[in-house]
Amino acid sequence: MPNTPRAAPRSAGASALASAPAEASAAAGRGRFRTFHAFRTRTGRRPPLVLLVPACVAALFALLPLGYLAVRALERGPGYAWDVVADARTLHLLGRSLGLTAVVVAASLVLGISLAWLTVRTALPGARAWSVLATLPLAVPSYVAAFAWLSAEPSVAGFGGAALALTLVSFPYVHLPVAAALRGIDPAQEEASRSLGHGPSATFLRVTLPQLRPAAAGGGLLVALYVLSDFGAVSLMRYDTFTRAIHTSYRASFDRTPAAALSVVLVVMTVALVAAETRTRGRAGHARTGTGTARPAVPLPLGRYRPLALLWCGAVAAVAVVFPLGTLAYWLTAGSSAAWDLGGLADTAWATLGVAAAGAALTTVLALPVGVIAARHRGRGARLLEQAAYAGHALPGITVALSLVFFAVRYAYPLYQQLPLLVCAYAVLFLPVAVAATRAAVLQAPPVLEDVARSLGRRPWQVLREVTVPLAAPGVAAGAALTFVVCMKELPATLLLRPTGMDTLATRLWTETGAGSFAAAAPYAAALILLAAVPSYLLGRHRT
Amino acid sequence: MTDTNELHVEGLTKSYGDGDPVVLRGLDLTVPTGALAAVLGPSGCGKTTLLRIVAGFLRADAGTVRLGNRVVGGPGVHVPPERRRIGIVPQEGALFPHLSVGHNVTFGLKGVDRPERRRRAEEMLELVGLAGYGDRMPHELSGGQQQRVALARALAPRPQLVLLDEPFNALDSALRAGVRADVRTALRATGATAVLVTHDQQEALSTADLVAVVRDGRVAQCDTPQDLYRRPADPWVAGFVGDAVLLPGTVDTDGTVRTALGTVPLRALPEGNPRTGTVLLRPEQLRLTGPTAQGAVRGTVTDVCFYGHDAMVTVAVDGHAAPVGIRVAGPLRVRPGEETGVRVLGEGTLHRDGCEPTAL
């Protein structure tokens, strides 16, 4: 099933960004390349207005929260904002956030690299099945993992619980790219090392591991981004990090400047991480080009370590996949008398589907022009547009929500705590997912087809309608389905922006878990997983 | 409709940006109405850039493109591709994968009612030898068939000019000759002017009415295939369009030239009546003789390459550093190491020294 090396929609966007310059230079028409490549050149052609105008609208839309957050944070003067930022409590929060991030990243690296190596390179029995199991936790929202652990053992709350839940949902971000990199390394290099007198472990340390560094670093940065932006797990585990402090500060006080200032600090940190991640990804991409394996490596026999390896994989699968599902099943059956409010569940599920569908629709429509331009046009303008659309990639959900709340309260009060605002937040947050999908889908359609259509008398917008969009449609639809799933699982922005009285499965699960009513929370968790699994299943089938 | 479909390209200049190498440097090319011209050149000579400028996908930095009596590209003029009436046949066909063969062919027909579209599609498919394939999808066709459909699609709107971008590259060599001949026949039948871009000299010589050799962004020579092969403008062109034997020579007063292979009559003297120069002969102009035959030069066979339809024998000749190639048809009677004689048949061309491409 998942033979896609891309770790996640977020990384897909970043890698797409990183590969763009390489393609542009290859197509620069120096002509040493086959003419087919030169036909793909789009040197200096301005995108048609039918694309450019809506793409600019989408880009501005994506940048609005970021800009308004800065305005709001500085409203009472830079001195006041600085006081909030330099406050001892802020520094304390910074330490806690960074500490949690460091621990989760380290643990994810250990889990991700060890599982990747065992499943790709050794004669582990059932390697393929373990490999699939190791990607499944990606589908578990952090707050569901937190629910599972809390409901089994409430005393786990705090740093340990937060680190545990976050590690178990985010280590696939390391596992996937490292496994892909391992598959890409030419086994001849390792054989050369062996023939030069280095044993298996020395070869792994001196030849294999250094080549995995870009993939592992990229994955680690994604994990860091995940942890810094996470709200669900830390809030349920009652461990104060930036996201939880922002939420508390917003709820507790009428003075919104501290929340805005804290948000700005958080955004600065995530932007730095995204920049770092994009850079490592660019380098990893270059390192991979041209290596193309001639043949797969011979699996390393595990010998007497086989039981140990199996135990390790089994333990990870047990805590990351079996345990959450088992806990859920337990609460579903044990608590049946207490909590089967079927009517409420159906209402909530219906509301969730509706708001997620609206979010996916708006996101896809906004992403379409940006994705087409990103795939088909080079140059500074096109790159800026694409990067603007990726702003949501760096913005934790809570900061987007906060910024839209501020904006609505001041400039669009009728929208405050109304559905359109929530849908807009989804669009800002998940525009990168849809843009990456659209861009990839358009890239799949050879541009020469558009040239042919032009030569046969079609105007640019007709080419878009009759050739580009029909060819990209399956990929765009897949992107829409993916957006739909992530909208459904979104928690922090939904908590802040939902209309009064409306619940989604995620918010309901969060509320019930927070109140300790685990049996009441379980049906919502189950419904969420089931509903999210349907599009994921369809996506998997679509790809194979 | 204009009565002429002549393509006239003048002074095209193009570079892709500051610091990038210049791709076209004042390229001129004229293709008469109804002719099939091949643009032949090594990779990187700018031939695809030329094609894209003519089609309207790129703008030239300078120069004009005229089609019939319409200027379609030039200073202040840029007719968009969809209004140029220029069909393109890309590499590997590039059929629209979401449309049937028939819909691919009729894609460029506008303002045409349905029965007429159907008729035209059938007519075009018949022209390329694929009658009855209209309902298939592109992926159900072989590479050669896809290429023919691409041609039918380009020809359906009756373009003034058809551009073919290395259309036979992706086909295996057994298929290539057949598709090539069919394409030529179809183009002739419609009377459209056509430009074929290729780096394969055999393809250019065998398919085109006119071959333009492009080097460093300029046309080095534009001639009929025969003249190009027999009277190349310089040794570089000679070597590019076929195997060449190049010998230094000294001109005699009687219009012949003395070389290491003996005295060779000249087709024409180059301008300026130089005393010395490089003589070009083709390997098929040389004959193997007995080592002591009269009028022959002695040499030693160094290598024999057998190709089936003929063979190439390499002979080291006294007084010339590089061994010369001799094309031999029929049975081979020599082996490496043997003594042999070499005799020249026909005329050679003399090229002045110092007009090598690097000096341009």
Automatic annotation (TrEMBL), chain B:
<dbReference type="InterPro" id="IPR017871">
    <property type="entry name" value="ABC_transporter-like_CS"/>
</dbReference>
<dbReference type="Pfam" id="PF00005">
    <property type="entry name" value="ABC_tran"/>
</dbReference>
<dbReference type="InterPro" id="IPR050093">
    <property type="entry name" value="ABC_SmlMolc_Importer"/>
</dbReference>
<keyword id="KW-1003">Cell membrane</keyword>
<keyword id="KW-0813">Transport</keyword>
<dbReference type="InterPro" id="IPR015853">
    <property type="entry name" value="ABC_transpr_FbpC"/>
</dbReference>
<dbReference type="GO" id="GO:0005524">
    <property type="term" value="F:ATP binding"/>
</dbReference>
<dbReference type="GO" id="GO:0015408">
    <property type="term" value="F:ABC-type ferric iron transporter activity"/>
</dbReference>
<keyword id="KW-0410">Iron transport</keyword>
<dbReference type="InterPro" id="IPR003439">
    <property type="entry name" value="ABC_transporter-like_ATP-bd"/>
</dbReference>
<dbReference type="InterPro" id="IPR003593">
    <property type="entry name" value="AAA+_ATPase"/>
</dbReference>
<dbReference type="GO" id="GO:0015418">
    <property type="term" value="F:ABC-type quaternary ammonium compound transporting activity"/>
</dbReference>
<feature type="domain" description="ABC transporter">
    <location>
        <begin position="7"/>
        <end position="241"/>
    </location>
</feature>
<keyword id="KW-0067">ATP-binding</keyword>
<keyword id="KW-0408">Iron</keyword>
<dbReference type="InterPro" id="IPR008995">
    <property type="entry name" value="Mo/tungstate-bd_C_term_dom"/>
</dbReference>
<dbReference type="Pfam" id="PF08402">
    <property type="entry name" value="TOBE_2"/>
</dbReference>
<dbReference type="GO" id="GO:0016887">
    <property type="term" value="F:ATP hydrolysis activity"/>
</dbReference>
<dbReference type="InterPro" id="IPR013611">
    <property type="entry name" value="Transp-assoc_OB_typ2"/>
</dbReference>
<protein>
    <recommendedName>
        <fullName>ABC-type quaternary amine transporter</fullName>
        <ecNumber>7.6.2.9</ecNumber>
    </recommendedName>
</protein>
<dbReference type="InterPro" id="IPR027417">
    <property type="entry name" value="P-loop_NTPase"/>
</dbReference>
<keyword id="KW-0472">Membrane</keyword>
<keyword id="KW-0547">Nucleotide-binding</keyword>
<dbReference type="GO" id="GO:0043190">
    <property type="term" value="C:ATP-binding cassette (ABC) transporter complex"/>
</dbReference>
<keyword id="KW-0406">Ion transport</keyword>
